[in-house]
Design a protein that fits this description.
Layout: H1 3-11, H2 32-63, E1 64-68, E2 83-87, E3 98-102, E4 110-117, E5 122-127, E6 132-137, E7 143-145, E8 162-165, E9 170-174, E10 192-193, E11 197-206, E12 212-213
Antiparallel strand pairs: 1-2, 2-11, 3-4, 3-11, 4-9, 5-6, 5-8, 6-7, 9-10, 11-12
């Protein structure tokens, strides 16, 4: 190698041997501002979810509630220990509705019965050996014999034929198991003040095998 060539090597940087670290781009890292922004956004999302969940619980508690059926008075429609969902949202009683109400006195617990007579109605009940006949006459004088294919009837039990006028702001109720049901035919319950109605039964919740709407 000539002297000229040696001097050239000493004076000029060697491409392969030179310090090339300056040419390697640094790995980009998230700035503290971006990290804090992400965490703040995540916290806000969680807060929104918690608030929405709380609102749903509050609304649900006002619009709906659950009730456990006690006793056999609503057989064969509802049975003892079954759980139902009731609603009182913009509710006004209608004939044939299954309702839950609270009555003071002997039965100091929620009671489940079916609405038979509305305010202004006259309810006439006649018992026969193997059947019963319920006739409802409204305030206009129009009479209807109820087709009660849902009832359980063995005999009249301790009840007798009766005619009852349904007063203003009350309803006449009966259980579907007519022989044993304590209802508006009994002095222990009588006519139900509409202000004591907790709501209308809309769904059977348990047992899960029978979950669904109730007729």
């Amino acid at each position: 190698m000539s002297e000229f060539d040696v001097d050239k090597i000493d004076k000029e940087p060697v491409e392969n041997g030179a310090d090339t670290t300056a040419d390697i781009p640094e790995t980009p890292t998230a700035s503290p501002k971006k990290k804090s922004g992400f965490i703040k956004g995540l916290v806000e999302q969680i807060e929104l979810i918690v608030v929405a969940f709380a609102i749903i619980i509050v609304v649900f508690s006002f619009m709906f509630r659950t009730c456990e059926v006690s006793g056999a008075s609503m057989e064969n429609t509802l049975y003892d220990t079954e759980t139902v969902l009731i609603s009182n949202v913009f509710y006004s009683p209608k004939r044939n509705d299954i309702i839950v109400f609270h009555q003071t006195g002997k039965y100091n617990e929620p009671i489940v019965k079916r609405v038979i007579g509305l305010p202004g109605d006259t309810v006439k009940i006649e018992y026969f050996e193997s059947s019963m006949k319920v006739t409802v006459t409204d305030s206009n004088g129009e009479s209807t014999v109820l087709n009660e294919d849902y009832i359980k009837y063995e005999d009249r039990g301790y009840y007798t034929n009766s005619v009852t006028y349904v007063e203003e702001d009350t309803v006449f109720v009966m259980g579907d198991n007519r022989r044993i049901s304590a209802d508006s035919r009994s002095e222990d319950i009588g006519l139900v003040d509409t202000r004591r109605i907790l709501g209308r039964v809309v769904v059977r919740l348990t047992p899960f095998s029978k979950f669904g709407k109730i007729n």
